[in-house]
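haha ok so turns out i had the wrong file open the whole time. this is the CORRECT one, sorry everyone. sequence first:
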Amino acid sequence: MSHDPVQKHRAEGKRAARCLVVTVSDTRTLADDTSGQTACDLLVAAGHEVREREIVPDDRKRIVALIRAGVANPGIDAVVLTGGTGVAPRDVTYEAVQEVLEKPLDGFGELFRSLSYAEIGSAAMLSRAIGGVVGHTVVFALPGSTKAVRLGIEKLVGRELGHILGLIAP
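then structure:
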């Protein structure tokens, strides 16, 4: 075991998350949703479990309802959304997530954009990735591209999800 107090704290608080993966899209189906499937695969590879997978249109009320349903489900610890985080008129995922968050994790969006900047340059500022806590559930929203999903889960969500759950556990 490491003597690093941060690593020790993470290891002691870590647990596998039971996830709901949500793709926000007016056009995707389960058959062609590569970003949602990538999110599922990467969460499992990081030691988590995907309990449910949904696709919801770019409709703020429906996104909020799906997040609230995930939070209310005692079998779900984390809701991971992909898509709808840009600046186009139909992109309302950020607003939907922001509406339900009790404790925003501002550092998540900041780190995501910083990592994204290293890959795609100034276009990273267009990402409105957001994360936070609702009760005892973690919520993260990532852009809809497969590359962005991979970046967000491999570098951030997959690594810290269990640690966050250990901190917010009842």
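The mean pLDDT is 94.
again sry for the mixup
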